[in-house]
Design brief:
four-stranded mixed β-sheet, 2 helices, about 40% strand, Double Stranded RNA Binding Domain, five-stranded antiparallel β-sheet, alpha+beta, 2 domains, OB fold (Dihydrolipoamide Acetyltransferase, E2P)
Amino acid sequence: MQVPLQITFHDITHSEALETHIREKAQKLEQFYSALIGCKVVVDQPGLHQHKGKPFNIRIDLTVPGAEIVVDRQKNEDVYVALRDAFDAARRKLEDYGRRQRLEVKTHEPVLSGRVARLIPEERFGFIAGIDGREFYFSAMNLANGNYDQLQEGDDVRFLEDAGKDGLQARRVTLHGHEEA
């Protein structure tokens, strides 16, 4: 880690054993994500003045390139179990973040909205005016429902953006209100 680990205890007596345990857990996080910049851990037990039944609240703030990852768990009356659960959740989030950075996670393309601006029925293609002002070409083959003859100029449509050889193209075009299930 580039920034030293920060450990804070609120409403709980500081314990060297607990701090050592936290340091070991934080060090293991670097095995799952080597670019970890910093880690802050807060151990809190709100309402300690009451006798029993108050779970520990563990908050872990991880600083990674381009983001902050936060785990906030209030799960167990045993501080070691609460820490284990919180650090396990932090490890999973770090692993997920690493996969997204390496583009190993499939992302869904945003569905855009627009209106049919022009239709060329004899050629079976047309143009969609996107809500951002851009214009997208589409052909009858780009329709999700396959029924070009149902389209009319001015119809609201949903579509995915694609880069065609001659410019912007719409694919998987559906009439708004007629999307596939």
